[in-house]
Amino acid sequence: MFIELGFVFFFSLVTLFMMRKIAKGIGLVDKPNERKHHNGAIGLVDKPNERKHHNGAIPLVGGITICISFMSFLFNHPDLLPNHYLFMVSIFILTLVGALDDKYDLSFKIRFVVQGGLSIAMMSIADIQLHTLGNMLGFGDISLGFVGYFVTVIAVVGAINAFNMVDGIDGLLGGLSMVTLGGLGFVLSVDGQSNLAYLCLVLIVIILPYVLFNLGLLGRERKVFMGDAGSMLIGFTVIWFLLLSSQQGGTPLRPVTALWLIAVPLMDMAAIMIRRIRRGDSPFKPDREHLHHIFQRLGLNNTQILCAICAIAIAYAAFGIYAEIVNIPEWIMLVLFLVCFFIYQLLLSKVWVITAKIRAWRAGRDTIDNL
C-alpha cells in the first residue's frame, strides 16, 4: 500500500510540474483588473486584480492535476468505486466547466445547470441519492421517498459550491479538503467500508503536492492555484462519497455525521448566503465576509488563519467521528450542529462590532506595553 501511495504522490507531483509548464507556455492569462482573459489565450494563469492580492501570474492547474491523477488511479483500480466510469465522466465534465469558468467567468446559472445535471445522472444511473435522513428528529428514520430527488440535487449543488466559496487564502481549500477526507476515511474504516476509506486516503495523497505548491513550500516561483475546476471537483467527490457511504453499504454512515465532516464549508456558505439575502443582494454576489476575511480583520496573517480554520474543522470532524463511533443519538448531533451554526451566524452578524472592539483592545494593550 505504501509503495502504491508513494507512486500516486509522485505521479501527482510530476503532473503538477508538467501542467504548470503547459499553463505558462500557452499563456492562458487574465487581463489586469479583469476576470476575462486576453483574446486568443487559453487561460490557465491567474493574474492579480482588485479581488486578488497575489504577486505575478499564477497557474490555475491544481484542480486539473487532481482530476488527471485521480482518474488515472481509478482507471487502474475500477473495483474500488461502484459506477467508477460515471464518476470519472462527472469529474471530467466538472473540471472542464471549472477551467472554462476560470477563463471566461461563466454565469453561475451555467454552473448550476451542469451541477444539477450531474446530480440527476448520479440518481438515475448509479442510484446514489438521499433515500433517508436517518433518525435526525428522534422519531424514527425519515424516509424521503420522491422528495429525495430534489433534496439530493440541493445537497450536490450545495456541497460543490460550499467548497468553491471557501477557497479564499493559500492552503485553505486543500487543508479543509484533507480534513474532510481524512475524517471520512477514518470513520469509514471503522464502519468497515475499506474501499471507500482507501480512496479518501488516495485523494489526500493526490492533493498533498498541490498544497505544497500552493503554500510556496517548494519555492514561491512554483506557486499554483486550485481554480474553480479543483474546488468543484473536490466538492462533488466529497458529496459522492458521503451519499454512497450513508445511503448504501452494509454499515452505512449516519447522514447527520456528514454535516460535521463538512461543517466549516457548509456553515460558511449558508451564513454568507443568508446575510446577503437579508441585505437584498444576490446570494452569489462575491464579498469579503467569509470566515477567513473575519480573521484577516482581526489582524491574523494567512498562516495563522489557515491553522485556525483547519483546527476548527478538525474539531468539528473529530466530534462527528466520536459521535458516530459511540452512537450519540442523531437528534442530539443535529441540535448541537444547529447551535454551532446559530452561534456562527450571530457572530457574523456582529462581526464589525466584534472586530472593532478586539482591535481597540489590542491597540490599548500595545499602548500600555510601550509605556
Q: Could you explain the architecture of this structure?
A:
The chain has 371 residues and is mostly helical. The protein has one domain. 69% of the residues lie in helices and 1% in strands. It has a two-stranded antiparallel sheet. Helix 6 packs parallel to helix 8 and helix 9 packs parallel to helix 13. The longest helix has 25 residues. It is globular and about 70 Å long. About 6% of the residues have low confidence.
Count of runs of 4 or more consecutive helical residues: 14
Major sheet details? 2 strands, antiparallel
Given helix and strand content, the structural type is mainly alpha
The fraction of residues assigned to DSSP E strands is under 5%
Element string (H = helix, E = strand): HEEHHHHHHHHHHHHH
The stretches of 5 or more residues where confidence is low (pLDDT under 50) are: 28-42, 47-54
Strands, helices and their partners?
Layout: H1 2-26, E1 45-46, E2 58-59, H2 62-76, H3 84-104, H4 108-126, H5 147-165, H6 172-191, H7 194-214, H8 227-247, H9 255-261, H10 263-279, H11 291-297, H12 302-326, H13 330-349, H14 351-370
Using brief descriptors, characterize the structure shown.
371 residues, two-stranded antiparallel ribbon, mainly alpha, 14 helices
